[in-house]
Amino acid sequence: MATIENIQESALEILKNKRLTHEQQMFNLAAVAQNSLPQAPGPYTDEFEALRVAGVLNDMGEGHYPYVARYIIPDYSKLMKNGSKFLRMDPPKTLYEAVYTLEIAYHNVPSVTHFPVYLGNWGEIFEPFCEGMTDEEIRTIMRGFLLHLDRTLGDSFVHANIGPEKTRVAGIILDLVAELQNAIPNMTLIYDPDITPDDFAEHCIATSLVSANPAFAYDPAYKKDFGKNPYAIASCYNGLPVCGGAFTLMRMNLNRVAEKAQSVDDFFNNVFPHCVEVMCGYMESRITFLVEEAAFFKSNWLVKEGLIDLDNFVGLFGIVGLAECVDVLMQYEGTNELFGKSDAADQMGVRVLDALKEFVERHTSKYSPITDHKFLLHAQVGLGESDTTPGTRIPIGREIPLYDHLRQAGLYHKYFPTGVGDIFPFEVTAKKNPGAILDIFKGAFNVGMRYISTYAEDSDLIRVTGYLVKKSELFAVHDGAQAINDMSLVGYNQVVVGHTLDRKVRSTDESAGQ
Amino acid sequence: MRAPVNKIIDYSFVDGPGNRTAIFFQGCNYHCTYCHNPETIHMCNNCGACVETCPVGALSMKDGKVVWDEKLCCKCDTCLKTCPNLASPRVTLMTADEVFDRVKKNAPFIKGISTSGGECTLRKEFLIELFTKVREIGLTCLIDSNGSMDFSKNRDLLDVSDGVMLDVKSSDPQEYLEITGGDGNGILEKAKFLAALGKLTEVRTVCSPDFQSEKTVDEVSKALADYYRFGDIHYRIITYRQFGVRSPYREQIRISTAEEMEKLRKIAVDNGMQHVSVV
Q: How far, in Å, are A120, A132, A222, A244 from residue A229 at the CA level?
């Protein structure tokens, strides 16, 4: 528990920090106040705190008592249809009105980062307003919109969707994304090979190869998980119910869990299920406070006007470090076989996730009827740890031949409706043949992956783990400059410690051989 | 039936539309001055010169034949530089089934295969066997050819192929002979024959200020512009580059400027070619 002296010292440090913008100072001060409270109380809180200090569990910077749902996925179609009483906005009738109505709404959609992690499906929202407009008229309005968002929503986890249908406005947005070279927003194409035409998908790939956006989400896989409930991709790559979101995301470092066990049996029978029980129990306490005592679900305009519904919120159970966890378990088995390099190790990964799913399903939440009162699994992308690989990925430096790599990744994506994904940078010749990358993506989805993204080796914009940064801005911030995007500050550590710049660039030379 | 395979590239972005597995056969009936992989021209004659220079001992002589150990090989290409014979010791004799197994494994990720060389049409019977199997699993088969084959006399191969990527190295028979050592008479007729069947996927011309490139590009595009009604034809006008080229040609052949290449592109477009790129 922080003493008043600790709190004052932290606050003063923030006030004097030249690298933070004013807004970033405010957010940091708010976190100090929030963390002056103890961890949200409950039967598992003390044990969670002990495991957190030991590096096994992590509270993902949500702060001790939660006061807002972590990820919010507003149903923007209601705003377009009804306007908003709280915002004092009538329903928009033109593209220009739609754009500023959304800009005003975004300013009032909170999250764990205080920025909206979901901006809507722009292909769907804007297309009806574009009738009768020329491409140039649409381009002028969307250009200003994109600039406004990048310069005001200073966080790489702000996320917009397009697709699965090809729309004229989405094509114009893609051209602007390539031109403007912004890290914000993160973008995903909702991709269904039966609906999304190849030329539109190739346009998305060509755009990714100059601006790292958009990523591809395989619609059929998400539809299977979310059923008739509409879903969206938000934040890094998180699939979440529309008109809902995520209450909280806590995280388990699977490698630390494995290190705590004495043997493979001890891991599966004792240590692992116990850690899962503690994390689920603590998540339940946080959610209980958020729902029953915090103001958010009682008074926020999004709730009152029906843009979100308590019943559509879920708890996200996050994991990292499957690779290192498996390596440790294989050592307990008396072999040095590595995750990604041996079938036995990869199958151990499957065994870990089967067990994880079973253990997490043992917990029944009081909330989340949309998921039958269960928490959903999330492959978290890491917080800049040197020895813990994001989610279920193969560590950078241990990459295997491309098709084998995609097949290996495909073993694990089905467990994670609320977020998992992998990144494959390509050599520059790919820019001349985006159809080739589309073929590879189609294959990836065929072998079980659900989310994949790319960028070209010469790109200034790169996808670090699940979010984008501009390399040029990252290095400028490291040298002392300020940046509107808070991830240009935080991302540096992940890029250096996580060896992002060493990620294997896929080239045809790599695939040559007899 | 076995054929000598120089290498297989599991994913290639430059051997036709989409992502393709590219299979390179050893042996060519041309010996182009600007060839960028001259080590594929001849078959190894087991002289053993490369065995002496291999820095990692991946090459040895057994029963009078050069044997290559792929596991030890570090792909430094010293053997290729040593070879006095425009050949390579790193060649594997493969059956069509062996190549097909490799393709089948790649199937989810590729649009099809492209066969190249050397000159792949020298392995016609092998190609027919391979293409028949590959098309059965829903993939396309493209032939990358130096222009030596008269496809009008090889309909059986063409029937199992989805298209040909054809080199037109020069439209002038004398220059064609100087560049390739082969007979260039009728090369435009060969191209038109394929185009009329909708099987001329690509035409390529490597250009240099030292060649009659303007004449060739002009004549190729005039010959083919009317054939788009049978299918797309991608005319790739290629800048000669030194990479991989053997001496003395490497130093002798001049490299076109971007302006010169743009002029060639404009000739092709002005003549009515609808799909042209300069690379």
A: 15, 32, 10, 10
The tens digit of pLDDT for each residue in A280-315 reads 999 999 999 999 999 999 999 999 999 999 999 999
Classify residue B251 by burial, with Cβ atoms within 10 Å: 0-12, 13-18, 19+: exposed
Q: How far is A283 from chain B (nearest CA, A)?
A: 40
* Domain layout of chain A by residue ranges: 1-36, 40-66+247-420, 71-237
Phi, psi for residue A177 in degrees, rounded to 5: -60, -45
Residues B155-174 have pLDDT tens digits of 999 999 999 999 999 999 99
By the CB < 8 Å criterion, does A403 face chain B? yes
Residues listed for chain A: 514
Domain encompassing residue B54:
44-82
Nearest CB neighbour to A514, from listed B18, B92, B105? B92
Q: Which of B52, B82, B112 is the last residue of a domain?
A: B82
Domain total in chain B: 2
Residue A229: Cβ within 10 Å count: 14
Neighbours of A55 (CB within 10 A): 13
Nearest to A38, CA basis, from A12, A59, A57:
A59
- Nearest 10 degrees: CA dihedral of A477, A479, A481, A485? 0
Q: Name the H helices within A365-452.
A: 402-410, 434-446
Do B27 and B125 share a domain, yes or no? yes
Specify whether B272 is located in the same domain as B196: yes
Residues B55 and B142 in one domain: no
| pLDDT tens-place string over residues A116-157 | 999 999 999 999 999 999 999 999 999 999 999 999 999 999
- Give me the amino acid identity at B276: V
Question: Does residue B74 sit within a domain?
Answer: yes
Q: Kindly list the distances between the CA atom of residue A65 and the CA atoms of A10, A287, A290, B260, in Å, as whole numbers in the listed order.
A: 18, 10, 8, 68
Q: Domain check: are B15 and B52 in the same one?
A: no
Q: Tell me what pLDDT residue A175 has.
A: 98
Which residue is closest to A444 within chain B, CA to CA? B109
Q: Which of A439, A441, A447 to mutate to test the interface with B (most CBs of B within 10 A)?
A: A439
A431 → chain B, closest CA residue: B13
Cα B45 to Cα A174, B70, B83: the distances in Å are 55, 19, 10
Alpha-carbon distance A402 to nearest alpha carbon in chain B (angstroms)? 9
d(CA B158, CA A313): 59
Report which secondary-structure segment, H or E, holds A314: strand A313-320
What is the ipTM metric for this complex?
0.91
CA distance A163 to chain B (A): 22
